[in-house]
């Protein structure tokens, strides 16, 4: 029966983390069931403070094979690198 249920990607934010991290996938009949099942499967030991579930079909990602052509346009944008700016001495952590 689960073969007909959509696949969801599960992201959990840990208690000490700032970012959600992909922890796995789960099949569910709907969004609410995916959220509850993800909680039960991926946060059994109270590891998380927040869960995201996203249908796998809604995720769009770049391919590692396209790394060079996909990210190459950013190489010619030298203004994105802080080499042209003077950072005042009183500014911490720069």
Termini separation comes to: 54 Å
| Fraction in helix | 10-25%
Radius of gyration: 20 Å
CATH architecture identity of one domain: Roll
Q: What report would you give on this structure?
A:
This protein has helices at residues 31-42, 67-71; strands spanning 7-14, 20-27, 48-55. It has a three-stranded antiparallel β-sheet with strand order 2-1-3, covered by helices on one side. Helix content is 18%, strand content 26%. The chain is flat and about 55 Å long. The protein has 94 residues and is an alpha+beta fold.
Q: What descriptive keywords fit this protein?
A:
94 residues; alpha+beta; Ubiquitin-like (UB roll); 2 helices; 3 strands; flat
Compact summary:
This protein is of the alpha+beta class and 94 residues long. It is built from two helices and three strands; from the N terminus they run E-E-H-E-H.
